[in-house]
Amino acid sequence: MTTPLIDSHAHLDFDRFDDDREAVLQRAVDAGVDAILTIGTDLASSRRAVALAAAWPRIYASVGVHPHEADAFDDADWPELTALFADPRVRAVGETGLDYYYDFSDRGRQQALFRRHLQLCGAVGRPVVVHIRDAFDDAWALVAEEGLPAGGVVHCFTGGPAECERALALGFHVSLSGVVTFRNAKPLREAVTLIPPDRLLIETDAPFLAPVPHRGKRNEPSFVVHTAQEVAALRGETFEAVAAQTRANTIQLFGLPDPQSVQAP
Ligand SMILES: [Zn+2]
Ligand SMILES: [Zn+2]
Hints:
The chain is α/β, with parallel strands linked by helices and 265 residues long. It contains 9 helices and 8 strands. The chain has a single domain, classed as TIM Barrel (Alpha-Beta Barrel), CATH 3.20.20. The mean pLDDT is 96.
C-alpha cells in the first residue's frame, strides 16, 4: 500500500494541464496523494480552482491574486473574488505576497493587495497562502502589522535559516517544494531541519519547479513523493513519518475533512 500524503500547493487550473488533467490526477492517486490544494492566481484562475474542487472530491481550492498579477487586477473585481469564499471547498486565501525578484507588478501595489488579503483572512476565517521572493523584510513587516488571524503558510519556502526562524516566530507553517532537491539550494537545505514537525508542509507548486529526478520537466502532484523523500533524508526521518506529519498538518491548517472519508477518485 502506498503511504498517503497531500500536495498542499498546485496550480491544476493552468492550461499546461488541459490536455491530460485527468491522467495527472490519476497518477497522483496512484502515488498516494489523497488531497491537493489548487491555488488561484487571479479572479479567473480562482474561479477555475473552485470549479476543479467542485468536480473532484480530492481537490480543495485557495482563492486570491498572485503578486505577479497585482497590476492587472481590477479592484472592482474584489467583491466577486471574496464571494467565492461562500463555497466550503475554498479553504485558503491566496496565493498572495510579494515578489521583488521578478518585479512583474509595482511593489506598492503588491503590498496593498497583500495587506488586503491578510485582512480578508480574518473576515472569512481562512489561513493565508503566502508567496515571498526576495522580499522577506517587507513581507514580515506587513504580517507583523496585520497579524495572522487564521494562520498561514509560507509556500515554496526558499529562504535560509534566518528567514525560516522569522516565519516560524510570526506563526507561519513552512511549506517545502521541489527546490529542496536542488543541490545548490544550500541555505534552504540547512533551514529544513529548523522547522518543527507540527509546522512542516510539502507541495509541488506544479506545473513549476519539478523536483529531481524530474527537474526541468512539467511538475505534477505525484512528484511530491520525491520532495517528501528528500525532506525525510535531510531531517533524518523516515518517508512515512514526513508523509504522515505533513498530511496531518495540512488537514489541520486548512480544516480539511479526513481524506480517508472522501469517496471516489
Ligand atoms: Zn508562489
Ligand atoms: Zn503557486
